[in-house]
């Protein structure tokens, strides 16, 4: 039972990585870590748990609708921004505590290392930014005392406006100008988080889970309000091996357009779906490592938005 609980924790840690990532024109992508990104942990036992994860993805495929954009066919200057790439090397540290089998709380702190290049409207040369900063902290509580086996629950929490919103371009024609709000480490808003999850056994060696989480901005900041989002995740895993647990997940993200004078309304909002195979390795009774490789299976974006071709996530999970 303890091994099963650890597998649940690891699987859901990765599944919840499907929050939005915003680039200069507020592009969204899936399991790459972002300003809205958080690690989740579910367990029906008491105790303290820690999770540290690294995610790499490069948003270098410019898309519109459900198709791609040929940058080579574009003649500059243009009357719209043409993004080049956004290279993300992101980290998230999460602490999860359960005082008993019914209640739990998770606090996730993201840190972003984001390199971005774009050609702004009316420009012919590339402008560059490089942001390294703590993002918006997420605090999420849960209750799972509805059934004797404690295998489903509800979540309620907030995303705090701890990330910076005042970073500038560092080179190119836009040097010294404020980055688009979608590229900043934080949104500047306090967001409500609410969700529900369920996990159970399919058979002796197969388990599954489902989870949904809604995120709604409660206010705005400097005439900007991020779009509301919905994450829906499904996954199965094979637990017939002693120390290795293969996983596969489907991660879906839907996000509405931004609002406000400083929002990029035209180039924001998307519906995205990904498949995420991976594996967790149980080194000891308390220590797990894991890795996932995520690829898109459906992408529909508003306007022009860059998306990643794949995402790599690796991490370590420790239970006290």
What does this protein structure show overall?
The chain is mainly β and 320 residues long. 4% of the residues lie in helices and 52% in strands. It is built from 1 helix and 13 strands; from the N terminus they run αβββββββββββββ. The protein has one helix spanning 2-15, and strands at 47-65, 67-68, 82-98, 103-119, 127-134, 138-143, 152-159, 191-201, 206-217, 229-238, 244-255, 270-282, 287-319. Strands 1-3-4-6-7-8-9-10-11-12-13 form an 11-stranded antiparallel β-barrel. The radius of gyration is 20 Å and the shape is globular. Mean pLDDT is 86; it is low at 1-42.
What keywords describe this structure?
single chain; 320 residues; mainly beta; eleven-stranded antiparallel β-barrel; disordered N terminus
Secondary-structure blueprint of this entry?
Layout: H1 2-15, E1 47-65, E2 67-68, E3 82-98, E4 103-119, E5 127-134, E6 138-143, E7 152-159, E8 191-201, E9 206-217, E10 229-238, E11 244-255, E12 270-282, E13 287-319
Antiparallel strand pairs: 1-2, 1-3, 1-13, 3-4, 4-5, 4-6, 6-7, 7-8, 8-9, 9-10, 10-11, 11-12, 12-13
């Amino acid at each position: 039972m303890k091994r099963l609980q650890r597998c649940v924790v690891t699987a859901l840690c990765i599944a919840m990585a499907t929050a939005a990532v915003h680039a200069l024109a507020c592009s969204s992508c899936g399991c790459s870590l972002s300003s809205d990104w958080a690690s989740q942990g579910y367990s029906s036992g008491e105790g303290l748990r820690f999770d540290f994860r690294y995610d790499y993805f490069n948003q270098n495929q410019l898309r519109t609708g459900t198709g791609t954009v040929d940058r080579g066919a574009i003649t500059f200057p243009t009357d719209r921004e043409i993004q080049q790439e956004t290279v993300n090397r992101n980290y998230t540290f999460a602490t999860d505590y359960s005082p008993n089998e019914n209640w739990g709380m998770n606090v996730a702190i993201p840190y972003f290392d984001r390199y971005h290049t774009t050609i702004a409207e009316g420009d012919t040369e590339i402008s560059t930014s490089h942001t390294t900063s703590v993002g918006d902290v997420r605090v999420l509580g849960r209750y799972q005392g509805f059934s004797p086996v404690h295998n489903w629950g509800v979540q309620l929490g907030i995303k705090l406006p701890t990330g910076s919103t005042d970073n500038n371009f560092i080179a190119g024609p836009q040097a010294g100008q404020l980055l688009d709000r979608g590229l900043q480490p934080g949104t500047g808003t306090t967001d409500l988080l609410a969700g529900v999850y369920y996990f159970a056994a399919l058979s002796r060696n197969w388990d599954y889970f489902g989870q949904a989480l809604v995120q709604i901005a409660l206010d705005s900041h400097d005439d900007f309000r991020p779009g509301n989002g919905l994450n829906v995740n499904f996954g199965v895993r094979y637990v017939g091996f002693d120390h290795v647990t293969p996983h596969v997940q489907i991660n879906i993200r839907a996000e509405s357009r931004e609002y406000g004078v400083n929002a990029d309304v035209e180039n924001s909002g998307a519906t995205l779906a990904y498949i995420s195979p991976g594996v967790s390795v149980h080194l000891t009774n308390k220590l797990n490592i894991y890795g996932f490789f995520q690829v898109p299976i459906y992408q529909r974006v508003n306007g022009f938005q860059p998306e990643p071709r794949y995402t790599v996530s690796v991490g370590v999970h420790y239970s006290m």
